[in-house]
Amino acid sequence: MGKVTFIEHNGTAHEVELEYGQPLMQIAVDNMVPGIDADCGGECACGTCHVIVADEWIGKTGQAGDDEKQMLDMTPEKAPSSRLACQIVASEELDGLVVRLPEFQM
Amino acid sequence: MSIQAKAMQVAAKVVPADVQIKGLRVLHNTKRKLGLTKTPPVFVESLVPDVSTLALEDIDVSNPFLVRQGQSEAYFKRLRQECPVHYAKDTPFGPFWSITRHEDIKFVDKHHELFSAEPLILMGDIQGVQPELFIAMDPPKHDEQRMAVQGVVAPKNLLELEGLIRERVAEVLDNLPLDTPFDWVSKVSIELTTRMLATLFDYPYERRADLVRWSDIIAASPEATGGPSNDDNFFQAAADMVKAFSTLWWEKKARLDAGAEPSFDLISLLLSNKDTKDMVKNPMEFFGNLGLLIIGGNDTTRNSMSGGVYALHKFPEQFAKLKANHSLIPNMVSEIIRWQTPLAYMRRIAKTDVELNGQTIRKGDKVIMWYSSGNRDEDVFEDAHKLIIDRKNARNHIAFGFGVHRCMGNRLAEMQLRILWEEILQRFDNIEVVEEPEIVQSNWVRGYSRMMVKLTPLS
């Protein structure tokens, strides 16, 4: 089991265990990381688990897929490394991952 | 674009949009007299049959009196249990599929490549007009038009609106009678949503009642939702609305052209965006999108404002829980929206044959996603008919829809409801509903036209 750090918009960092095989969204919700709403329950259909992946990690998490991009396009805080946390599955490769949260979920 | 829309776009260069809509009405009336179009349905209320007496194939959930007669829960429960993807062959709105389970609704809503939102998202089409609105457009045009306006309700802008909303809520609540019953719908729910709409549109404040009147008439088209409007008042409302907004549009444009800073309102945003700056020249798109934004901000929050009061009256132990712990308000807001589900459904048309939950939906079939039923799905929400203000998964409700058409004003709606309840709890110990509320006639709007209440101030 590795580690992942969620950094809130105000700078507060939450380092939690990275449970392999779980979507990042679920890990955030299970650890009560504030700022992840996940209204649709992980179906890439609401855009409320938006995270901005630290630049050095985007090679490992990969870029957003087409469905995901379509949802992310609707948020004004979209950045080049924006992802929906429900679409990133934790793996050993992502041990040490750092993601920032937007100011608002849409 | 339809032939009608194209013709109107050309005509718009010389004839004002509202005059064109009046022209459509004349044409439409003539066609009707000649027997070229169907006579619109008139719905007369009669007793809705007990669903347990009906064969599955005879169940018709398009009946606009289902909610008013308290039958909606039983009808949809039976469909969810026995036939979650249900085909009704013969209804006043033609044949359609009903999608009733949470999971299946999410599937349809998400897959816009399989299910088109065009040409309209209501149960029936409106003869004589073909409004064009982005909620009823598929990507990519949908994305362009939505992006032009969504900034006005983006969370960042909402922070600036919060103080204004709170001021108005306080003003409305402070002027309510304490000694005598009154109608919560007109005095609070309508008053607050109308003020909000006038602000978002920068519409003349003293004429703000117009917005609600048009919205109510347009949403109550009998052909579209089984409501009590008729052709005459529908076309009149459409023409009046387009006229008022065209005037506002040209005024704002003149100011912008003269070098004024754009103000932050819906019309100015449309005017400042390259994809929408000429919308006024396409009357059907102008009418459709403004109608959408008005109805979107009117019927929805208004009925959740009334629905919350009604639900807490029906479940008084929840009101007690709330008074003991005000920090439950944000979760309660989601739960109220789930419980009320102010808009019952959105419609789609299958773009291809699709297998769903054991049924084959054919290309071209009409598909209704019943959000009101998905929000009562016992597989997702335990004791779904109850309002439980600390329900763990209240946010998973489906009332905002999912996918690219997900409600754009969701955060504004949540904020308005949160502030309303924060301010209510500062003032009142109880809101007693003194007689059963009046429910509107519609298969789409799940709303209240009158709800008499009596307040108990905090001692």
From TrEMBL, chain A:
<feature type="domain" description="2Fe-2S ferredoxin-type">
    <location>
        <begin position="2"/>
        <end position="105"/>
    </location>
</feature>
<dbReference type="InterPro" id="IPR012675">
    <property type="entry name" value="Beta-grasp_dom_sf"/>
</dbReference>
<keyword id="KW-0408">Iron</keyword>
<keyword id="KW-0411">Iron-sulfur</keyword>
<dbReference type="GO" id="GO:0140647">
    <property type="term" value="P:P450-containing electron transport chain"/>
</dbReference>
<dbReference type="InterPro" id="IPR001041">
    <property type="entry name" value="2Fe-2S_ferredoxin-type"/>
</dbReference>
<dbReference type="InterPro" id="IPR001055">
    <property type="entry name" value="Adrenodoxin-like"/>
</dbReference>
<keyword id="KW-0479">Metal-binding</keyword>
<keyword id="KW-0001">2Fe-2S</keyword>
<dbReference type="Pfam" id="PF00111">
    <property type="entry name" value="Fer2"/>
</dbReference>
<dbReference type="GO" id="GO:0009055">
    <property type="term" value="F:electron transfer activity"/>
</dbReference>
<dbReference type="InterPro" id="IPR036010">
    <property type="entry name" value="2Fe-2S_ferredoxin-like_sf"/>
</dbReference>
<protein>
    <submittedName>
        <fullName>Ferredoxin</fullName>
    </submittedName>
</protein>
<dbReference type="GO" id="GO:0046872">
    <property type="term" value="F:metal ion binding"/>
</dbReference>
<dbReference type="GO" id="GO:0051537">
    <property type="term" value="F:2 iron, 2 sulfur cluster binding"/>
</dbReference>
